[in-house]
Design goal:
mitochondrion, 18 strands, hexokinase, transferase, glycolysis, about 750 residues, kinase, 5-stranded mixed sheet, Nucleotidyltransferase, domain 5, 6-stranded mixed sheet, single chain, alpha/beta, Hexokinase, domain 1
């Protein structure tokens, strides 16, 4: 409670939460007297309570006005007009104006009379609630009393006889003021004489007529001031409406309801002030008690929804213990994968890439690069010059790979790739001389040498036949031979993650880690050869392609996998494979979100329990949409464009689901990065490591929340490492060319 009004005053309450005070009192009394629990769900302003009591009508009331012992107004505002509101646009929120405080800064000084000042002086909050003290029934009667006392003291009424009763606050009732004019003239006169007699005053007929006029003047001013306040709010709502319609205003309070002339004055004044506004006035019959009960009922329903939402999302929430266990598990699998004779087979391939050197800036020349890693295929011409001459310059073309090609035969897939290369040569008038080529091939390969790699399995929806178990460089060379139009010199087979690392290492020599979080998820890093038990050499270093997307394929992720992950896995092209990747990468995050939303709809938490047809469409939540939902404050329109006619409340739930799924993905990815940088630190026997991670992929690039969550979690899980994240510029293409350039440089040297 901010402050007491209406001359209420209990010490030690202002600044306190009245719900907590009430709940504490209830709990203490229930323990002693009754054996049941009562929980306070909502605190409701009486004006809002009146408004909510009419919420069951076909159209909700936009405005509620109370003119009672106090006065106030609530109205329905569009949420996109409320500064700082987290609600969705097209939603609404009732605003409690507390208009009784209007005038506290002097806005009503010209309207304030000497009698208003005397009433204010007798109040417990002098100088406050100026508008309320000029309009509410509590103060209307006090103003009349003060005027009568003043005129009597000046011998202008009652023959100058001022009785002590007239000086006592509260002795005049609202009924006295109203009934002086409510009844026919003769009856009104008698009523006036009766209440004056009760106050100990001997009043002539002329005195009674004057008193009637005083009462009428005071409540007329109250009605007109209330009309002016209401007119301001009606004009505001009318201005916002694209298609103005008749507004509904709920009126409550004894002053308005008990005296027809008061309502007539208010409504007539309103027509004069805002003739463009059409208003239907209705009276509050049930009062704020029913409204408070309705608010409590809605809150109880929403709380059940929140509890249901929390229950569904709970498996996605990872504690620091969960993350540390995940980091340690990945680290253990890294060691197993590098070992020549591991105690158990590792689910991490830890594949040698035969990339042993990072760029040092001395690379020069022209190089070709191919980039195959998803639904698009790129051909690039990369000119490598000195930094003074502009560094790396790239010409590239993007070609689509239709699904029928990705799931055809190997010959058809590689023929399509070569046809794209021929088109590139033709478009850019390239010479027939064979240029060194780096081939970015973003699928798990057992690399035999820098230019030879055996495809272990397809991922990301590819399933071309006659490729698994074959050398992909030879498949490319065979397709070139079948084409007989161009010639290439494939010098390096490159995983996109390695390309990303090399691209960033060209700019930052501390870069020893590559990370991709896009259609798939993978990481690589520079490992000491002495730790690579699968190779015979102990000298120098080599980049290791972790293929970390396969972590968990042995069942070690069971603790982290939700029912929604299981559904996505079963419906994928490679069930029970790439379990880690399916919890992180953009190819699967949208599907996880979709299945969570379907579950929430089945629990009546979303879409009023209706299962929307659009939600049954696989792929309705692409990576970009998840990023857009994370990046926008309001997502209502985004979802509507997908054919999901959601309410503003639904939109908030959808955003929370996306946020939670994205957060888990970022934290799990961070556990892998933390395991890698900690291993590099231990390899170098350093207490503190400065290291850069070159990172690429649509999930990281398009979703700032994912990127920040990833960085923050790495800092938490690898406190002895100062990790910098460097966004790769065309890593998979530029990096492939740089690997070819480094290979040529080291071959020459």
């Amino acid at each position: 409670i901010r402050k007491w009004t209406k001359d209420f005053r209990w010490p030690g309450v202002e600044g306190k939460d009245v719900i907590k005070l009430l709940q504490t009192a209830i709990n203490e009394n229930c323990k002693v007297r009754v054996n049941y629990q009562i929980e306070v769900l909502a605190v409701v302003n009486d004006t809002l309570g009146d408004l909510m009591s009419c919420s069951s009508t076909v159209r909700p009331c936009q405005i509620g006005v109370m003119i009672d012992a106090g006065t106030n107004c609530c109205y329905m505002e569009d949420t996109d007009c409320i500064p700082g509101s987290t609600q969705e646009p097209r939603g609404h929120m009732y605003i409690n104006t507390e208009w009784g405080s209007f005038g506290n800064n002097g806005e009503l000084n010209e309207e304030v009379t000497e009698f208003d000042l005397l009433v204010d002086k007798e109040s417990m909050d002098q100088g406050k609630c100026r508008f309320e003290k000029m309009t509410s029934s509590y103060y209307v009667r006090e103003i009349v009393r003060i005027i009568l006392a003043n005129l009597s003291g000046n011998a202008e009424l009652f023959n100058g006889v001022l009785t002590p009763t007239l000086l006592i606050k509260g002795k005049l009732t609202l009924q006295d003021v109203v009934e002086s004019n409510f009844y026919p003239k003769s009856v009104g006169l008698a009523k006036t004489k009766s209440f004056l007699s009760r106050l100990g005053l001997v009043a002539s007929n002329q005195d009674c007529f004057h008193v009637q006029e005083i009462c009428k003047a005071v409540y007329t001013r109250s009605a007109k001031l209330s009309a002016a306040g209401l007119a301001a709010i009606l004009a505001h709502i009318h201005e916002q409406q694209q298609h103005p319609e008749r507004m509904i205003c709920l009126m409550s309070g004894d002053l308005y309801k008990s005296y027809p002339l008061y309502s007539e004055i208010l409504q007539q004044t309103l027509k004069e002030l805002v003739p463009e506004c059409s208003v239907k006035f209705i009276l509050s019959d049930e009062g704020s008690i029913l409204g408070a009960a309705i608010v409590a009922a809605v809150e109880a329903k929403l709380r059940n929804h929140r509890e249901g939402l929390a229950q569904v999302l709970a498996p996605f929430k990872l504690s620091i213990v969960d993350l540390e266990r995940l980091r340690n598990g990945i680290r253990q699998e890294m060691d197993n994968g590098l070992s020549k004779a591991p105690s158990k087979k590792s689910c991490l391939r830890m594949l040698p890439t035969f990339v042993c050197y990072l760029p040092d800036g001395s690379e020069r020349g022209d190089f070709l690069a191919l980039d195959l890693g998803g639904t698009n295929f790129r051909v690039l011409m990369v000119h490598v010059k000195s930094q003074e001459e502009g560094g790396v310059h790239i010409i590239n073309e993007i070609y689509a790979i239709p699904p029928e090609i990705t799931q055809s035969t190997g010959a058809q897939l590689f023929d399509h790739i070569v046809n794209c290369m021929v088109d590139f040569h033709t478009k850019h008038g390239m010479s027939e001389n064979a240029l060194p080529l780096g081939f970015t091939f973003s699928f798990p390969c057992n690399q035999i040498s820098l230019d030879k790699g055996i495809l272990l399995r397809w991922t990301k929806g590819f399933s071309a036949t006659d490729c698994v178990g074959e050398d992909v460089v030879n498949l490319l060379r065979d397709a070139v031979q079948r084409q007989k139009t161009i010639d290439v010199d494939v010098v390096a087979l490159v995983n996109d993650t390695v390309g990303t690392m090399m691209s960033c290492a060209y700019l930052d020599h501390n870069c020893e880690v590559g990370l991709i979080v896009g259609t798939g998820c993978n990481a690589c890093y520079m490992e000491e050869m002495r730790n690579v038990g699968t190779l015979d050499s102990n000298d120098g270093r080599m980049c290791i392609n972790m293929e970390c997307g396969a972590f968990g394929d042995d069942g070690c992720l069971e603790h982290y996998i939700t029912p929604y992950d299981d559904i996505v896995d079963k419906e994928s092209l490679n069930p029970s494979q790439q379990r880690f990747e399916k919890m992180i990468s953009g190819m699967y995050l949208g599907e996880i979100v979709r299945y969570v939303l379907l579950e929430l709809a089945s629990r009546n938490i979303l879409f009023k329990g209706h299962e929307l047809k659009g939600l049954n469409n696989k792929g309705i939540f692409p990576t970009k949409l998840l990023s857009d939902i994370e990046n926008r404050q309001h997502v209502y329109q985004l979802l509507e464009e997908l054919g999901l006619p959601v309410s503003p409340e639904d939109a908030k739930v959808v955003k929370e689901v996306c946020h939670t799924v994205t957060s888990r993905a970022a934290m799990m990815c961070a556990a892998a990065v933390a395991a890698v940088v900690e291993k590099i630190r231990e390899n170098k026997r350093m207490t503190k490591l400065e290291v850069t991670v070159g990172v690429d992929g649509t999930v990281y690039k398009m979703n700032p929340y994912f990127a920040k969550k990833l960085q923050d979690t790495v800092a938490l899980l690898a406190p002895s490492c100062n990790v910098k994240f460097l966004l790769s510029e065309d890593g998979s293409g530029k990096g492939a060319a740089l690997i070819a350039a480094v290979a040529c440089r080291t071959k020459i040297s």
